[in-house]
Amino acid sequence: MTDSENANSNFIEEIITNDIENGVIKSPITRFPPEPNGYLHIGHAKSICLNFGLAEHFGGNCNLRFDDTNPTKEETEYVESIMNDVKWLGFKWANLCHASDYFDQFYAWAIDLIKAEKAYVDDQSSEEIRANRGTLTQPGVESPYRNRSAEENLDLFERMAKGEFDEGSRVLRAKIDMKSGNINLRDPVLYRILKRDHYRTGNKWCIYPMYDYAHGYEDAIEGVTHSICTLEFQDHRPLYDWFIENVSVPHVPHQYEFARLNLTYTVMSKRKLLELVTSKIVSGWDDPRMPTICGFRRRGYTPASIRRFCREIGVSKTDSMVDIEFLQHFLREELNKTAIRMMAVLHPLKVVLTNWPENFVDELSADNNPEDENAGTRTIKMGREIYIDRGDFMEEPVKGFFRLAPGREVRLKHAYIISCTDLVKDSDGNIIELHCTVDMESRSANTADGRKVKGTLHWVWGGDAIPAKVNLYGNLFTLRNMNDMEEGKDYKDYLNPESLVVLENALVEPSLATAKPLDRFQFLRHGYFCADKDMTEASPVFNLTVSLKDSWAKELKKL
Length: 559
Known about the structure:
This protein is α/β, with parallel strands linked by helices and 559 residues long. It contains 13 helices and 27 strands. The strands form seven sheets. A seven-stranded mixed β-sheet has the order 12-25-26-27-23-24-13, covered by helices on one side. It is elongated and about 100 Å long. The model is unreliable at 1-7 (pLDDT under 50).
């Protein structure tokens, strides 16, 4: 059963159901239409899951379309990354489309509007057009060029297309209503001059359509039945309809709006994300702290957890803030069932087992995943010198500390009970080594006297443990709702200085050396980790995906 078959009903799904029942359509055609001017983020994932999910649910089709009408910002790199992200999330498009496929048709429809005296060439500068557009309380001022004849406008527009005029010297505008209460209808710009090569069409064009002009026509050409946009396009819908109504199109699409995804401790603005990359605040678009889909992938998130998150948050007409821990909850649920358990010591402290038999190396059995009976077991080795995490020892233990301390017993996971007898410090008073005795009769929880100990520690054997670099990732920002920034502050004022902590000297089980990039594991008592994309056997690198603590599990049980 697909995710979409389990989907909670939403208002768009109800609209499509009614359209099918009333014979308006047989099945829906939707589209996911990103502009290839950056990498996709988690907000786009919601739109991807919605558009592709609805098509799957109703037996329709969903196109992947690139709205590539602005050659100044669009690149093939972004096109390829978007295609990879959609595939990684588990979706297949019916058709791969580009706005640039339709440039000739857009131009022809612009000619039709000019001939019908519904569009005109304006010589005003962009500043003048903006100033004369008016405000929410003041009507706009008509351009002095608004009443040019159709013949003059046709001549000027054709000359614009031939490259006779400089950038910014002229635009083509729709002739609608400069007094409209909807500012979008106050003679919007349809075409501007941009003497830039397009990544697909090269230098064929030096005029390019605006998004609002192209959007509805793309839907009409592709036969889209339900054009689903985020709420900021709600006021653009009358303009969308105006363009469709005023030329002869092969199909009449309809636009519907839903609330975009806002996530805590996150910014979604492409401009800001690009600035984070170009200013080297992050290592790139796929930095695991970024809200990009490739960033989530590199951090170890799974497609299924993101799809489930997008399904569970639902589709509404009201913007809201979703807690990132809600997404983490679904990730933990999946990884708990699928991730292999491994032992890793992030802050190593050497332990010498003073009564361990000389030259003896024991082989112990460990469950790969107790939640999966088919996961099997693995063999781990143990000898005289092991390493535990420094935080698992306290020279003067406080109340509630049940781990290792002088004179105290703990169990080593999958192994023996040990007791601390002595410690070694350096000249600065730092503990550098522990001496412990081991109860050789306590192997694998089988003690002759039946005694139990409260603390169980993870560990690695010094004889085969491998050094690894571990990246501990946290939220990139300290402010929960990045829409609530204090006046006068910039989003960079809320950068979290501890969003990345790099541990260069961690020790991990030897089998982790052969982990493949993006393989996922649970490091016992630490959290879930994945092998980084730059991981090699000679230089292992692991990224913290998510901690073990789940603050949402109890809340969901109440629902």
